[in-house]
């Protein structure tokens, strides 16, 4: 298991402890279970980030992904056509252009509940005391998604645990011993949509919600520490890993399924 956690590994652990631990122990390749369209969407999201990081980063990405970006006939794949539209939208967004300034792709480190954490900031703007995270999303900015934990639809920022991510990054920045970095830096989620006419918005988050998210993060890190100390990780019995490693030993009642 990893001694240093990231937001994505903690989120994975909260969804299925058994799968997350198997991934960390290199016993399960989660990436291999992703569909080609999911991978293409992830790469297209990276393209948007790289565009606004630097010309050098974008060129490096293009060289690395030339075979992923184009069809056999040489035209740009649909997800990358979408990525170019999203880039144009952000590039013409006066608020985005004004605030997406400062250090890009910055790695940060710190501790939460004695566990080492690391994070990547898309952009740290010290003049405005904010950090910005670009999110490329499928639906509209106000969309809600089904939450398996809540058993109801919640806004995508909540469903994807982005409040956790922003709370973790805020805490890691607070711990920085760089004197230029203040102690009260606020996150901005910059959303850009994959709609026919992409929409964009800079979204701030109430501090009390970030504080509540941090309490939840600490609850999950406590569980992670339990597993580090030898507790058997819980299985969700829903994910691909659990299905692939399931060993039926007794029947189940139909009444439990409905
Ligand atoms: Zn599972």
From TrEMBL:
Per UniProt, residues of the Putative exodeoxyribonuclease 8 PDDEXK-like domain are 6-245
InterPro entries xrefs: PDDEXK-like_dom_sf, Put_RecE_PDDEXK-like_dom, Uncharacterised_phage-assoc
The alphabetized UniProt keywords are:
ATP-binding, Helicase, Hydrolase, Nucleotide-binding
Q: Which GO terms describe its molecular function?
A: ATP binding; helicase activity
Name the source's superkingdom: Bacteria
> What is this protein's name?
Putative exodeoxyribonuclease 8 PDDEXK-like domain-containing protein
What is the organism field in this record? Lactococcus lactis
**From which lineage does this chain's organism come?**
Bacteria, Bacillati, Bacillota, Bacilli, Lactobacillales
């Amino acid at each position: 298991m990893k001694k240093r956690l990231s937001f994505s590994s903690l989120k994975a652990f909260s969804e299925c402890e058994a799968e997350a631990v198997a991934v960390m122990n290199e016993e399960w390749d989660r990436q291999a279970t992703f569909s080609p369209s999911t991978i293409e969407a992830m790469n297209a999201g990276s393209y948007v980030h790289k565009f606004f990081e630097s010309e050098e980063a974008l060129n490096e990405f293009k060289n690395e992904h030339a075979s992923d970006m184009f069809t056999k006939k040489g035209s740009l794949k649909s997800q990358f056509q979408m990525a170019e539209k999203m880039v144009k939208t952000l590039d013409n967004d006066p608020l985005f252009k004004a605030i997406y300034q400062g250090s890009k792709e910055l790695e940060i480190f710190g501790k939460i509940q004695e566990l080492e954490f690391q994070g990547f900031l898309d952009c740290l703007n010290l003049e405005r005391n904010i950090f910005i995270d670009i999110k490329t999303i499928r639906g509209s900015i106000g969309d809600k998604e089904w939450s398996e934990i809540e058993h109801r639809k919640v806004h995508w920022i909540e469903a994807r645990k982005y409040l956790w991510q922003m709370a973790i990054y805020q805490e890691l920045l607070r711990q920085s011993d760089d004197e230029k970095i203040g102690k009260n830096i606020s996150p901005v989620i910059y959303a850009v949509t994959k709609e026919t006419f992409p929409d964009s918005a800079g979204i701030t988050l109430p501090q009390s919600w970030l504080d509540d998210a941090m309490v939840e993060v600490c609850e999950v890190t406590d569980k992670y520490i339990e597993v580090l100390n030898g507790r058997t990780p819980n299985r969700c019995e829903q994910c691909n890993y659990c299905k692939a490693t399931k060993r039926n030993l007794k029947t189940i009642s139909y009444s439990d399924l409905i």
